[in-house]
């Protein structure tokens, strides 16, 4: 009522035209009510207009995020509550966590804005910098992988059955498909997948995090996902332009047609190591001279619309790198071409200079074809992207050819961490000249990166442990503390893999006390653990501690998901702490004998010439570097390298370098890469670096070798019970809420990490023991296959498929048996036929009943992630009628020993109507219920609903040469009209 009165007050206060002014409150109310009713009616009409189709199960993942468990599990919640009271029955299906309230169903699309810790005040009380702006060019475009997760069937057909299309319509998701927009993937065509030119292509695109597909020229992939009508590639790239020119005629015309239809351009490099000296493409009116030796390069300032990163007025005055006489120059004869870069033929070049200009900048070494000849825009470079100017030209070409869709933002966020301040033996500790050099380094880098300050990781206990000179140097650092930003690096540089973990909190807080005493401006929100131990692989104790402290919000590591190549490192957020990927500078192992400052000059020169660090700056919008001051003698060179590289970036590019507060660095990172918010866990036992970081006194986690993945209501409990009869199979520990299930990969339990997952299993009795788990909702959960593949790449997956009609009805009977209100309110028929006008709960319940039974879609997702020999598909009917033969077979598939004969373990129980274990008896009353037959209207509806999906399943199974389950064959036979 209060709100209503406020509304009326508002109405009265609002300026109105004279006629309205005279209206009474009653009139205002009636008019408002009328307008409301009209609005409702119009909305209903609009809904009704969109008629319901059998394929129209909306898998609206985003809505699930906010609706939480009780909405998603509509119809299941009451069952959960009941089950919690009655522990004698087994767990309800799909209960993903301890309590309904805690659960956030995570079956969501990852393009939601990540939840990041709030911005915090900088060391001086304010942010050092405003957060960098995101460039519109960098707005996210649908990555192919996401599409593959949500449209697996279409992807599978596209990949393996390109001549066919699925019979069923795609199951709708919230992903909006713009069928004219190519996916954000690049097709790189090579003459052979083994070509040496593959690596530079991987580096060029990979370092910009652009997804690539490689293809051989003789076997180009199908370019459009037919069933979705989605063009697959945003750009076609050739490592060697001659491969494009030499494409087989039909392939060329298909490719060209694709490019023209979707406005896709071609970016090509050249590789003259294997080709003749001079070539003429008559068709393209382009002459090319290969193997030219060149000096100097300048860009064409007239190609204004192409230059973005490049500063076109800059001139490179030195000889171009020429290990194998690898440059190609272009001599076009058509107005469609525009030179992009010019060079000068070296005076000592031995090749024939017939028709080649010898004047300064007289030859063209990069060119653009504006499509005047064949309607396709191209950028062609006279070498690979190795040379730094070529790299920049290619990046700008890429941005232009993809209309900005694959362009990186123009800002580069830079953070340089100097770990181990005060750590080290006397000889390599900070001397006065080092301290001075660091202060100067800050000042010099500030010319290019406003407000830049080195970040120093300090270890208080080791302060003044060095000799006299070091003492002086370290004292100087303290005197100049305000010149830097400091972060906690643990008091004694404790290596957590050998230090008792209960010392972490002491080590963190003592260091902060030290900082206070010395008046160091510490950013307490950012912290680095020595050797990054505890961050990845995660030590739960470290994150516990950070959670207790409450203020640590960001850290970084080299280790996730792997170390090499550098550009493959990623970030993730775990328990509120943002973990950023860390970049490493070169270690100048060869220059160690140099005087350090002399070596520094060398590092700077190299960067100025576009060395390794320069490319990191070009391709990495948010960079956190790791360097050392003392414990690696060579680490001290890094400061020179940063001077060099920032100067070079400032000189050659229009990129804007920024040095914000570390929390803003982290926030910027995850805003740029929201897909990375959720980590993908992998097995530390499989990676030597991770193994090194694992605690010395803690055994590596042991994971299951077999997963019964579902789907729900297909006999998964019977299967796991039977498997357990084998002396060497050991299932997960029972859970008070989830009972026999784990549900790690398909719920927010995944956030608990791998230690938690491993703790769900008993210790193996001996080497023969095979751990396994059953979680029936894994099968249809869109993220699960990828997560499983990442952690358990060799796992064997068991999938049981019974008649989807039976499966849906069994779920309804499950609800009924637990007096779930939904099943009391609605009949089975009402639920499965719910349309757009139905209440939301009914729509969600409909999804709950029908979605899992769309086997083809879910199976395709597993098949895209696992080889077929890791999947064991069980005919659900056979499991009921002849479980012994299924169980005998599966032992072979898993490779367990000894093989047991299940005919001696199982017997048919006439009363139960199912096979039961001789020793442990039949399953509980919740499994194998007796209930009335499905009504014929429902049966007819479901038969129609699943018709095309089942047809797709047949195609899919045939494609992997798997026999069809008996119910599927029977269904097909019954649908063939008899004459
Ligand atoms: N041997 C044996 N004993 C009992 N029940 C058997 C057996 N084999 C298969 N089934 C079928 O399993 C159905 C229950 O499937 P799930 O165990 O996968 O259900 S759950 O998802 O774990 O809740 C269950 O469904 P309902 O018949 O609806 O109860 C059975 O049809």
TrEMBL record:
Protein name listed in UniProt: [heparan sulfate]-glucosamine N-sulfotransferase
Lipid bilayer topology: Single-pass type II membrane protein
Positions annotated to bind 3'-phosphoadenylyl sulfate: 810, 927-931
Keywords for the protein's UniProt record, in alphabetical order: Disulfide bond, Glycoprotein, Golgi apparatus, Hydrolase, Membrane, Multifunctional enzyme, Signal-anchor, Transferase, Transmembrane, Transmembrane helix
Residues at the active site: 713
Keyword 4Fe-4S: no
Metabolic or biological pathway, per its Swiss-Prot or TrEMBL entry: Glycan metabolism; heparan sulfate biosynthesis; Glycan metabolism; heparin biosynthesis
Domain Heparan sulphate-N-deacetylase deacetylase span(s) in chain numbering: 411-614
Keyword Membrane on entry: yes
Species of origin: Elysia crispata (lettuce slug)
Domain Heparan sulfate-N-deacetylase N-terminal, first and last residues per copy: 185-399
Domain Sulfotransferase: 704-920
InterPro entries: Heparan_SO4_deacetylase_dom (IPR021930), HSNSD_N (IPR056793), NST/OST (IPR037359), P-loop_NTPase (IPR027417), Sulfotransferase_dom (IPR000863)
Enzyme kind, highest EC tier: transferase
Localization (cell): Golgi apparatus membrane
A GO molecular function held by the record: hydrolase activity
Disulfide bonds: 916-922
Predominant location: Golgi
Cellular component annotations (GO), alphabetically ordered: Golgi membrane
């Amino acid at each position: 009522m209060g709100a209503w009165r406020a509304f009326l007050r508002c109405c009265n206060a609002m300026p109105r035209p004279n006629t309205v002014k005279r209206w009474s409150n009653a009139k205002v109310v009636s008019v408002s009510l009328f307008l409301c009713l009209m609005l409702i009616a119009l909305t209903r009409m609009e809904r009704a207009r969109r008629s319901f189709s059998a394929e129209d199960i909306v898998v609206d993942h985003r809505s699930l995020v906010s609706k939480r468990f009780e909405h998603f599990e509509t119809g299941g919640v009451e069952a959960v509550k009941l089950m919690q009271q009655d522990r004698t029955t087994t767990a309800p299906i799909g209960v993903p966590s301890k309590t309904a309230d805690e659960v956030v169903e995570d079956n969501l699309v990852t393009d939601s804005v990540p939840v990041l810790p709030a911005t915090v005040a900088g060391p001086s009380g304010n942010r050092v910098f405003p957060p960098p702006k995101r460039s519109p060019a960098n707005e996210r475009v649908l990555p192919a992988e996401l599409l593959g997760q949500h449209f697996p069937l279409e992807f599978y057909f596209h990949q393996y059955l390109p001549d066919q299309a699925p019979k069923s319509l795609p199951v709708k998701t919230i992903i909006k498909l713009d069928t004219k927009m190519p996916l954000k993937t690049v097709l790189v065509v090579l003459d052979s997948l083994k070509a040496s030119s593959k690596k530079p292509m991987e580096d060029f695109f990979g370092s910009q995090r652009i997804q690539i597909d490689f293809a051989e020229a003789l076997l180009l992939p199908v370019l459009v996902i037919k069933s979705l009508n989605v063009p697959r590639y945003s750009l076609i790239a050739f490592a060697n332009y001659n491969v494009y020119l030499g494409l087989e005629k039909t392939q060329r015309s298909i490719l060209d047609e694709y490019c023209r239809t979707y406005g896709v351009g071609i970016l090509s490099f050249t590789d003259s190591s294997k080709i003749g000296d001079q070539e003429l493409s008559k068709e393209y009116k382009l002459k090319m001279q290969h193997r030219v030796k060149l000096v100097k390069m300048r860009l064409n300032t007239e190609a204004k619309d192409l230059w973005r990163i490049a500063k076109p007025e800059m001139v490179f005055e030195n000889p171009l790198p020429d290990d194998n006489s690898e440059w190609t120059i272009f001599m076009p004869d058509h107005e469609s071409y525009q030179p992009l870069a010019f060079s000068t033929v070296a005076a000592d070049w031995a090749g024939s200079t017939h028709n080649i200009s010898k004047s300064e900048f007289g030859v063209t070494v990069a060119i653009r074809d504006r499509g005047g000849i064949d309607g396709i825009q191209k950028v062609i470079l006279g070498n690979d992207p190795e040379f730094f100017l070529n790299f920049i030209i290619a990046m700008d070409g890429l941005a232009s050819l993809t209309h900005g869709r694959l362009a990186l933002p123009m800002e580069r966020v830079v953070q340089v961490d100097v770990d181990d301040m005060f750590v080290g033996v006397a000889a390599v500790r900070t001397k006065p000249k080092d301290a001075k050099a660091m202060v100067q380094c800050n000042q010099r880098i500030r010319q290019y990166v406003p407000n830049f300050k080195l970040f120093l990781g300090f270890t208080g206990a080791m302060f003044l442990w060095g000799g006299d000179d070091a003492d002086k140097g370290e004292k100087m650092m303290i005197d100049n503390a305000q010149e830097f930003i400091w972060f906690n690096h643990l008091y004694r540089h404790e290596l957590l893999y050998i230090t008792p973990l209960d010392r972490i909190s002491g080590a963190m807080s003592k260091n902060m006390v030290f900082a206070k005493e010395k008046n160091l401006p510490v950013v307490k929100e950012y912290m680095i653990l020595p050797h990054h131990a505890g961050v990845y692989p995660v030590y739960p104790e470290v994150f516990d501690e950070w959670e207790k402290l409450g203020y640590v919000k960001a850290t970084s590591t080299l280790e996730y998901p792997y170390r090499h190549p550098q550009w493959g490192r990623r970030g993730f957020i775990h328990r509120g702490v943002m973990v950023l990927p860390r970049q490493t500078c070169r270690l100048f192992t060869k220059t160690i004998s140099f005087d350090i400052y002399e070596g520094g000059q060398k590092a700077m020169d190299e960067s100025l010439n576009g060395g390794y660090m320069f490319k990191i700056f070009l391709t990495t919008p948010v960079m956190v570097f790791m360097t050392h001051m003392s414990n690696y003698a060579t680490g001290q060179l890094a400061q020179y390298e940063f001077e060099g590289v920032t100067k070079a970036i400032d000189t050659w590019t229009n990129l804007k370098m920024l040095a914000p507060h570390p929390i803003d660095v982290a926030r910027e990172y995850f805003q740029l890469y929201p897909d990375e918010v959720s980590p993908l866990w992998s097995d530390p036992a499989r990676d030597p670096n991770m193994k090194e970081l694992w605690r010395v006194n803690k055994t590596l986690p042991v994971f299951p070798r077999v997963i019964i993945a579902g789907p729900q209501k297909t006999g998964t409990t019977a299967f796991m019970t039977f498997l357990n009869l084998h002396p060497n199979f050991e299932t997960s520990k029972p859970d008070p809420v989830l009972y026999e299930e784990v549900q790690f990969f398909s719920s927010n339990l995944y956030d608990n990490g791998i230690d938690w997952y491993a703790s769900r299993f008993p210790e193996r009795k001996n080497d023969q023991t095979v751990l396994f788990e059953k979680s029936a909702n894994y099968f249809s959960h869109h993220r699960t296959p990828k997560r499983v593949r990442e952690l358990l790449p060799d796992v064997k997956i068991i999938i049981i498929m019974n008649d989807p009609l039976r499966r849906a009805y069994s779920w309804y009977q499950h609800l009924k048996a637990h007096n779930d209100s939904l099943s009391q309110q609605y009949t089975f028929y009402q639920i499965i036929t719910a349309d757009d006008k139905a209440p939301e709960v009914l729509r969600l319940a409909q999804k709950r009943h029908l979605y899992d039974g769309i086997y083809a879609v879910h199976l395709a997702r597993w098949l895209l992630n696992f080889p077929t020999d890791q999947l064991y598909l069980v005919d659900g009917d056979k499991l009921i009628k002849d479980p012994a033969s299924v169980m005998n077979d599966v032992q072979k598939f898993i490779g367990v020993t000894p093989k047991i004969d299940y005919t001696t373990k199982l017997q048919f129980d006439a009363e139960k109507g199912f096979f039961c274990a001789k020793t442990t008896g039949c399953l509980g009353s919740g499994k194998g219920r007796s209930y009335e037959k499905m009504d014929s209207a429902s049966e007819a509806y479901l038969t129609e609903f699943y018709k095309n999906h089942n047809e797709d399943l047949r195609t899919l199974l045939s494609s992997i040469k798997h026999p069809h389950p008996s119910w599927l064959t029977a269904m097909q036979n019954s649908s063939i009209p008899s004459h």
